[in-house]
Amino acid sequence: VMTTADLIIRQFTPRAKTLLGLMASDLGRPVSRLRLKVDAARLRDVMLLVIRELRHQQLRVHDKDGKALLIRIAPCRTVEERIDGTILTAHYEDAFNVSAGGKLRISAEA
C-alpha cells in the first residue's frame, strides 16, 4: 500500500486488498476513514511517526479470525530524496519462520 504524506491511499496491490480488506473505492481516501479487516487502531499514528522520524516501524495486528499480521511501514522517498508518504507491507506472522540456525525463512504459504 502506498500513501501520500497526508495519509491518503495512493495505490495498493491485489494481495493488500485481500489481507487488509481494501476496496477500489478506498483509492483517494484517508487512512483514518478506512474500514479494514484488521484491528489497526494505531496504524495512522504509527504512519505519522514514520513520516516524522524517517524510520521504519512495524505494527502487529490481528485479522477478524484472530490471525496475527505484521504491517511494516516505511517512508516513501522521491528521486529528489523528499518524503512523499509511506509504503506499507503486510504479511501473516506465521509466514515468517526462523530456522534452527537463526536464519529468517519465508514460508511457501505466504
Give the SSE layout:
Layout: E1 2-4, E2 9-11, H1 14-20, H2 43-53, E3 57-62, E4 68-77, E5 83-92, E6 96-98, E7 104-106
Antiparallel strand pairs: 1-2, 1-5, 3-4, 4-5, 6-7
Question: Would you kindly provide a written description of the structure presented here, covering whatever features stand out?
Answer:
This protein has 110 residues and is an alpha+beta fold. The chain contains two helices and seven strands; from the N terminus they run ββααβββββ. The chain starts with a strand and ends with a strand.
**Sequence of secondary-structure elements:** EEHHEEEEE
The span between the termini is 17 Å
- What is the helical fraction, as a range of percent? 10-25%
The neighbouring-strand order within the major sheet is 2-1-5-4-3
Beta-strand proportion: 25-35%
The computed structural class is alpha+beta
Shape: globular
- Could you tell me the mean pLDDT? 85
Counted beta strands: 7
Contiguous helical run count: 2
**Gyration radius, rounded:** 14 Å
* Unreliably modeled segments: 98-110
How would you characterize the largest beta sheet?
5 strands, antiparallel
Entry keywords:
alpha+beta; 7 strands; disordered C terminus; two-stranded antiparallel sheet; 5-stranded antiparallel β-sheet; 110 residues
Summarize the structure.
Helix content is 16%, strand content 35%.
